[in-house]
Structure formats: C-alpha cells, structure tokens
Q: What sequence folds into this?
C-alpha cells in the first residue's frame, strides 16, 4: 500500500513517520511550500512536490492533512485517480470528497500533534469512515498498523468527538497557559505547575473528571472565589473564572 | 516533632500519611465528625477527637487543613498553646493566626488531593511562610522531609499561586468533564480521551503551553469554530467556547 501525504504539518508529520515506522511505504509528500514538502520528505526519505499537478497518480492511499479551511479547495484541484482519498479532519464530513473521488473516507486520530514531538501512537483512538465496505477494510488495516484502538464512526458523531477533543486538549492547555502567566508575573517559573498538571491528568484514568474535581468552586467557597476573581485584571479572564466556577458547581449539584 | 492535624479531608489525609511515611510522628487528628476523625486516625494509628477542647496541648506542630470558609472559626475556638500553628490554604493570609497563636505560619502544597489516591509528594512544590526565622527553619525541615521543592513565599504572592493552581488543575479538569459528557452523549466512553489528556499534560514539560497549543482557535479556523459552537446546546458552554477560543487566539497573536 503506497501512500501519498497531501500536507506536511503537525499531523501529517507525526502520522507519516509513524506509518513508515510501521512498515507502510510513504511514496510522496505534497505541501504548498517547498520548506514544508522538502522538510518532511527528507525525514521520510521520499519524493516531494509543491504542485498538485505533480502528485503521483499510482498510489493506493492519499491522506489529506491540511488546514480545514483549505481542504475542499485542495481536493478540488487534485487530478482524479483510482486511489482511496481520505482526510484527517474531525469536523468535516466525508461527503467533501463527493464529485472528486469515487473511493473516499476519513482517518481521524484523536490526539494533539507537534512536528518535533513523537507520540505513543499505539493507544491513540483512530476513528474511521469509508464510502465502501472494501475501502473500510483497507483503512482498518492501515489504522491497525499504527494504533490498537480503531473504530468506525459517522461524520455526524465525529463532529462531537472533535469538539470533545478541543475541550480536553486545546482548552485544558489554555488553562495551563493562563496559570503559567499568573505564576510568571509573580517571578515563579511555570515548572512549579507540572506536578499538579500531571496529577490532574493522570487522575481521570482512575476516576471520572467529575468525581476527581477539587478546589473552591466544587466546595462553593464564595469567599475564595470572590477574592480570586478580583485578582484577575483582564475582563475576559474574570468572566471565564465565573463561568467555569459556575459550571463546576452545576456539575457537582445537578450534573452537566 | 509531634504533629496534630486539625481536619481529616483530602489534603489532611494525604499530607499526614506522607509525613508519617517520612518518619514524622502524627499524634492526633481532630475532625468535626467522628467518621472523619476516626477514619484518618485508624490509617495513622493515632488518637482522634471531635472536640477542639480535647486537642492535645503538647504537640510541636498544629496543621490546620479545613475548608477555607471555616478556618478562622476553628482557629478561634482552639485553646492557646506553645506550639507552631500553620494552615494549608492558598488564599488565606498568615495573619489569620494573629491574636490566637504567637508562633504561626503557612504550609501550602501546590497539588490536588483525593483521600484514596496517593501522590508522589517528592516533586510537589511546598510554599512556606513563618512568623519567625526560627519557626521558618522548623517548617523547612518538615517540608523537606516530604518534598524536594520547598520555598518561602509571602501571603500576597501565594494568592496568585493558588489562583494559578485553580486554572491548571480544577479548570483543566472541568474541561475534561465537559469533553467526557460530549463523548458519552454519543455513546463513546470517555476513556477515548485519555491519550489526548495525558499527551497534552505531558507536552508542557517540554515546551510552554502557549507554544504547545494546537486546534481550530490557534489557527483561527472560523468555519470549524462556528460549527463547534453550534453543537453546544447549553448557553454557558457556548459562551465558554467563545471566550476560550478568543483567549487562545489572543495568546497566539499578542500574548496573554
């Protein structure tokens, strides 16, 4: 199964390297910029191009891993071929391929990726969708080579998985960023937060997040909450503090 | 150094057990309820009481680990003695002891605690404050027995450390709870989120949270953001989504 990657960003980088490691052959990388295409192709030791016209037509699998905002534009510029085209986007329906490629699907790994940081792929859930049973089996086989947690899911449900991922990943990370800023403003390195961050994350492997909750909001400690809100100079952060505290207390008393 | 714990909640439980493990002697536990006092005293194999009048007067160190809202009330009901009195609250100034105990201080571990879950205490930052240099040395010695990361910090600055802890711990955990609810509503177990949660948390040991950020908000992917907002039926969650997305983009473009 020869593979072409359309895109050379964070996800394309980690996924292509993992596929190669698992014995799959990445044949070519396309990226809008030479820097991107060449950079990833060198890591994979394969061909690269910055022109969609020059994408090889004989590969078995084309993995589109570009920004959501440009995905349909890129698909529409690709010359039709007989391969299986899949994208990696949580919020875009599989139907985006209709009219462009008869064989199509989705390969969505629920994880955060950075170019330079390897990820233990074996446990990463991969959510698949395919336009035919046969192509579904191909995707299952490819996904199974990199992950032990593979399941099929409709475009409709995948949107909620993506949204959940944004909360659990991007939004929790923003909480770390705010916390880091608060500490650094007091001359304390944000490394002091790492044990708390790691413990909080690790805890939900043993109990549900709702059961694991601690702190002033779950105790409804009005004094502390009022004092903390006042420490925040930024109006958006104060509003955020209020909203999340209210949400935590609601979860405790009546459920989310 | 004999120690008395005033309180038998999450923090008191984990801290007293860790102190005992480190060779310090916990002499007695006080809690408002018999269940609390007896439960912890049995784990520690020590005395217990539900009456502040019966708290021993000959201990070297009294550690107050009760809810912030009742701390001053509890302190005011304790019979004066010659021991060193400390509390464990992030947002309450050391001066809460003035008029009640000549020798006083603060022992604040930056971590989330649950009764039943042990914590690797050695890396937990402990922030100390003391009313005299001599008592500061005593606290440094006690804290050093359980943690390798001990520093002195004023009441003023400690408030910000506590606030940072609320963001990095309680608030990130709330993001997990919302994500879990979104998945479970689709019939998917929240365990699917664990690799993402662990990766996001572990990443900030290698790069700053701002540098580690990924997802639709940092790319300012308006399409995805509008779609995701619409998936949230609860008005507070929609507002939360908007506020955090705006914050992530602000951090990316102009800093927090």
A:
């Amino acid at each position: 199964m020869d593979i072409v990657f359309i895109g050379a960003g964070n996800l394309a980088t980690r996924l292509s390297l993992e596929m190669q490691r698992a014995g799959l052959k990445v044949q070519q990388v396309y990226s809008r910029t030479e820097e991107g295409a060449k950079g990833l192709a060198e890591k994979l030791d394969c061909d690269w191009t910055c022109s969609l016209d020059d994408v090889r037509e004989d590969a078995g699998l084309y993995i589109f891993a570009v920004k959501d905002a440009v995905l349909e534009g890129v698909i529409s510029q690709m010359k039709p071929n007989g391969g299986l085209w899949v994208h990696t986007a949580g919020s875009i329906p599989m139907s985006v391929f209709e009219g462009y490629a008869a064989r199509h699907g989705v390969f969505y790994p629920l994880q955060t990726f950075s170019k330079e940081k390897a990820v233990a792929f074996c446990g990463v859930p991969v959510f698949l969708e395919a336009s035919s049973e046969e192509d579904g089996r191909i995707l299952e086989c490819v996904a199974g080579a990199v992950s032990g947690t593979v399941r099929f899911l409709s475009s409709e449900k995948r949107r909620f998985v993506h949204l959940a991922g944004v909360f659990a990943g991007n939004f929790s990370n923003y909480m770390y960023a705010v916390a880091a800023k608060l500490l650094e403003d007091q001359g304390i390195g944000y490394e002091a937060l790492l044990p708390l961050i790691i413990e909080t994350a690790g805890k939900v492997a043993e109990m549900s997040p709702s059961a694991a909750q601690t702190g002033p909001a779950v105790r409804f400690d009005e004094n502390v909450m009022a004092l903390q809100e006042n420490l925040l100079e930024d109006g958006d952060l104060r509003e955020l503090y209020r909203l999340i505290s209210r949400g935590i207390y609601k979860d405790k008393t009546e459920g989310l």
